[in-house]
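Quick one - first record:
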Amino acid sequence: MADFKQIEALFENAPIGIFETTVAGKFIDLNCEFVRILGYSSKEDVFENIKNLENDLYVDPNDRKKILDQLKKRDEITVVEVQFKKKDGSPIDVRMSIRPHEKQGRNNNTNIGLIEDITKTKQIEQSKALKDQRYKALFDESNDAILIFEGMELIEWNRKALALFEDSSKPGHVMNFFKMHPEKQSNGSVSTQKAQEIIEKTLAGEPQFFEWEHLNKHGEIFHTEVSLNRITQVNPNLFQALVRDVTGRYRAEQELKKSEQRYRTIIDTAPSGILTLTKHGVVKSSNQAFHELLGYDKTQIIGLHFTQLSGIKIGNYDEAIRAYDALIQKHRIKPFTLKWESVDHDEKIVEIKAIVFSNSDEDNVQIIVNDMTDHYKMVNKLRKLHSELTKHRDKLEELVQERTEEITALNEELTSSNEQLALQNTELTTLLEKLRDTQSQLVHSEKMASVGILAAGIAHEINNPINYINSGVTGLELLMLDLMEMLNPLFEKLDVQLGSNEELLEQKKMLDKAKNEVHQLVKTIKVGVMRTTEIVSSLRTFSRIDDDKRTYTDLKELIDSALIILRNKYKYHIEIEQQMTKDNTLMGNQGKLSQVILNILLNAIQAIDEKGKIVIKTVRNKATHTLQLIVADNGCGIPERVRAKIFDPFYTTKPVGEGTGLGLSIVHGIVEDHKGKIHIDSTQGVGTKFTITLPTNLDEKDFIR
């Protein structure tokens, strides 16, 4: 039994196909290699698809009939080459060794055979037969001039050589070797002397490849690449010269050098500091703006590792290293800021942007450095202004609180006086409630005025540098388009002249890749400008928050603006999912509805401590003429004892300094002003869902005044 299993394993794992068939033309058994050669997935797949060998396996059914005839004539192994059909219908050439097999105890004989795929061998044989013809054709039709020399004597040439070097005095012959060159090369060397040195090195067994200036049959100088090799099979003094006319490429390279110089000029005159590093962090180049920004001398930093540049503050050093490592590992990094001390000990705040780009066979890193010192000074001024406004608001709240306490004390005194003053007490209580509402509205008005001033100021200050960046990017894009238009004709000529030279084609591909990466870089900068513009636009929306005008408003746009403003509070730990209906418009106050959305979203964000999700959904009900805004989070939830008080003015569960308790109270008032309703569902530890229902069929006259 062990011997049988071993034989069975050898059969199944044999490196050639093995099969057994009936004389009638059906498979009895076959091994895995046979299945693989024919492109089937299993033996069962073969049995299912090949039920008649002549029609289902052989490309020519007559081939099997001929093989069977041969087997009848001689009872021995027959070797034939035939074509089989693979499962996908494609033909393959196989070499088959087959012989009849008579099984003991049976009347029916079978055929056992071996097959091997010789498709590639056949192809090689066919290509080999054409090799000599092709060699002759390649020699005569080559785009390169081919000249065969014995010593200094020219003995054979091809058509291209005749076209370049035909002797005008002897048509059909190539000119004398010494007439093919100008007297001197462009580097000042004497052509004949230099050529003699090169030929001697070639005959000594050193193949030569060099650039050379030749004279054509009209006596004009043209640029070539020459390859010299010995032909030792026949005569040790024979050598072959391959001459390629690269005049077009030479001119293109000269134009490319000019283009590179123009590109270098653009980089050097760019307003941002630009530093180019190798993938190992070594400084390759830098522009003038970088040196002016940080005070470095160009000769001092080339070849240094970027960690050797002094000035990065200790607290920012590790951040720079981490960012660089992530960049080299092909991760996208977001712009970040560093404190950097210039050579003159002037501390600056700089914004760092970095990309990886390929140059030849090596990845390089380009660092763009922008001075943000003035920007952060302005931000600090705005923060100081905000602090002053906050103090003003707090004093106002204290004043209102004092007046409220005085009125409350007076109310208590009048209540205790006698029953006759009960009616007056009721009137004073009503007055107290109105005063509290007035207090809430006044505090809200002051806070919104502060928000409007801050938003308008920030939008104005950011808008100017954004316009400057946008103009600079547009100018850079126009310059690059002009540069590409100048290079396109050269690329077209290169496509014709490069032929099959893989090295030159690869260089052209690199140029094309660099061109595309420049476009991608400009596109990336534009995306950054667009995102900043969106933030500015969102700030302007909230700067109009005290406007009492009612217009048709799109809730989707207000939600997007709020998410842009709050992005920094949720972008790293909260997933935002929007499920918006097609039509989200209604009549309302854009600024106040923006405040409602901002407050609801802010509460949802603050309810999530670590990772979480917020779902924003709108539902339009045409039957009831309403539009529902639903904001659901999976945060901490609201305790039941707190739920009944969350819309009360001045009630808050937040620590001192983080909230005044007016947010949801104001939201409730704005929703009522729009004839809407607000509902809350919350489970502690599970999450909270706010549902705001607003009518969509109101006119401006329907609003509460």
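second record:
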Amino acid sequence: MTNAPSASSLPGNPRLYNIALLGLFGCLLSVTMLSGLLLVRLGLPLPSRLVFILFFLFPATFFSPFLLPHRWRQGKEGDASLWLVLILLVFVSPLLSFIVGDWLFVIYPLMAGWGIRNGWPWLRRIVWRQLVLLTGLALLWTAWFFNGVSLVGQPYPYALLPEYTLLGLVSPFHYFNMAIASMIQEYGIASVGLDGLPVIPYHVGSYYWIAAMGRMGESVPLYVFPFAYYSVVLPGLITSAAMSAAMLLPRHKPLTAAFLAVMFLLQAGVEVIGSTQFHYSSESFIFSILLFCLVLPLLHQGFRTLNSLSWTYWMTGLLLSFLLLAFKLSTGLIWGAAWGWMLLRRQASWAWKGKVILILFMVILGGLYLFAARPEGYIASSGIVADKNFLFPFFFFRYYNKFPLHAIAVLLLPMAYLIIMAFHYPKAINGSSTEYSSYWKCNAEMAGILLLAAHLPTVLGLLGGVEDEGYFIYTGHWAILPLVLAHPWWNPVAEKKRKIATIASLVLLAIFMVPWNHLQGQLRNRMTTFIQKIQPLIWQADGAVLGQLLQGRSVGQYIYDSLRQHYRLFGPDFIIALEAGANSRLIRLAKQEFSQTKTVGAIYVPPPRPQRPPNGVASLANQPYPPENARLWQEKYYFVKSCTSQQMRIPALTGLPLLLGIPPENSDCPRVMDFGIRYYGSASTYRPLSDPALCLQAKARGIQHILVVKNLDRDEDWLPLDCAKISPLDSDSSMRP
């Protein structure tokens, strides 16, 4: 690393060397994350084509600037932000598969190979010492993410999401997420599919991306979520933040691997302070932060450039506001606020300022109309409208009271940066260097606006709860992180300080290393925690095969025997138990039935017997509610009865909508208004129907083929119903025999 290249030794623009260095690090991180996932899932089902696409998607994305013609790559100021916009476009390019078809995946190996080939003149200047440090950092980040996602931020190991889902042990949000992605993948409609496919307003950008990956990879969201999350999304978050910071540096500064070491220490320090809460568990949130980091230099360019900017620049910012709202409302609103402030500062005419604000306001309103989960909006959901209290600053402390250490840690970094900027701002005003003065004034204003936009909704009490407040506050942290990394004090790339930066970074990394005996103890504790986390999974699988999986052993003993005999966590007997489960049979039988028909189909599942007769029914004696289907309507999440999400299980797993999927209000499954259920009326509530009446209900929703599941335990009670052969004349409401 002491032989890191100087600016004069680089072939052309040093920023391309920085992209090559960070692209290499991102690829190493992606490979180590994917390898860790495959190791944990050794012996479990593997979507091979999806893994192939994900392996090449990352280098194709972050080496895409090298696909530009040579004269464009050697451009001057302004090109840095456009390079990151190109990376963003390649990252979201799987969405094109909905237009051009599933064959789109073949371009990613070609793009990855050509991009690495064109970037080789810069890659070959990375010395072996830097490569060792890059590899070590990739392993550290991998261990950090696996520890946080699997043992801190989730009630179960996220790497085993498919198995937990198949055995009915996931939370309602996972069924909700997978139901939306499944309906998008199969029908191109953002819906939960509880009774037909009504569109629900939600931030569905990430679900469209997941669905596109599922189409190209011939897989289902059940597997796309964890595989894409580990191999692309989390590595992309770190790489995007680092690239954003690198593009904010002076264009003559070549990076060293110590730059990434500083980034790891800063972010890991925040998480160490606030270890009670791990904020990487929301896929849509990580998607949005990734995109936000990539477009941050574009915002910085508008704050810093003194020359006039083209209309394409303004339009790009407005379109990005809409795109970010589609992925997460918090990032879209923060970007819109910062973009609007920058536009106001740059427009001298009040007439132009009014037009700018009006256009931006319309874009944000349109995004909220399409992507806000609650039709009444954040203000009404927070309850302050009813109280007529539009300014109640103590709402700000709801998040800080629930997660005090983590909240302080998230706020600490941007606040420390603003304090440093405040001390240097007078010098920037009177500084002799125009570039230095412009840098300080621009960064101080930009950081202040981003921090204000991230915290003001919470201060005003405009958010519906602690979770929404956390999204806004944490977005502010990540928005300012690239500015902090690009600061001269944190930048370990100055040529005269390379040796000091190298030694310091290695010493700081050594602090995170512990003595071997202590490490052994930590590993034992983590393994014990891991076993505790997966106990419900093993117990549920054991119940599916009537105790034949454990055969009287404890979960720990089963894992030990599996490791000793099969060299993996789960042996072949676990796969047998998994396939015997109700949900696995549901997927298998539904696939067999609908693979034989080209028509749009749906599933109809009569719920179990209610506690009391429906309105207008004197007795339950003649109402054949099959008790065998109770498992589909009453889940056990960590052995606590809940049926909030149970009706979403079938659309999530089979990719087929339900008919009459809302349980009766007087059943064991009370109706809730969350998870898009509010968009279904009383006509979607389950009621007994004859075949003709059921077909009328289906045809009104564009469905022609129905699979009636009378008894999940008997294949002969899976009765197909072709509505094209049913006469609509007899439409009485009696239950089908």
